[in-house]
UniProtKB/TrEMBL annotation:
Superkingdom as given in the UniProt entry: Bacteria
Record protein name field: Glycine zipper 2TM domain protein
Source organism of this protein record: Paraburkholderia elongata
Keywords (A to Z) from UniProt: Signal
Signal peptide: 1-25
Length: 82
């Protein structure tokens, strides 16, 4: 693997971890672990897989949090209507 590609992936990973809030950190960490393992077995691209997995994990965690917030808002509206 090219050294500049590894360096770029490490910088991207550092930036993602630095900007990750506590709400998104779990999704990022879980995604990075899964992506790293998958990348390793898919041709020794663990770093690239970890970066991609982190991004996907954060996206899914954010989506899940938004869905939960919408459900709670709907439950509050239903309780107020009764």
């Amino acid at each position: 693997m090219n050294a500049s590609l590894i360096r770029t992936a490490l910088i991207a990973t550092t930036l993602v971890f630095a900007t990750a809030g506590t709400a998104n950190a779990a999704g990022c960490l879980k995604g990075a672990v899964v992506g790293g393992v998958a990348g390793h077995y898919a041709g020794h691209h663990a770093v690239v897989g970890a970066v991609g997995g982190c991004m996907v994990g954060r996206h899914l965690a954010k989506q899940h949090a938004q869905e939960q917030a919408q459900q709670q808002a709907a439950q509050r509206q239903a309780a107020q209507a009764q």
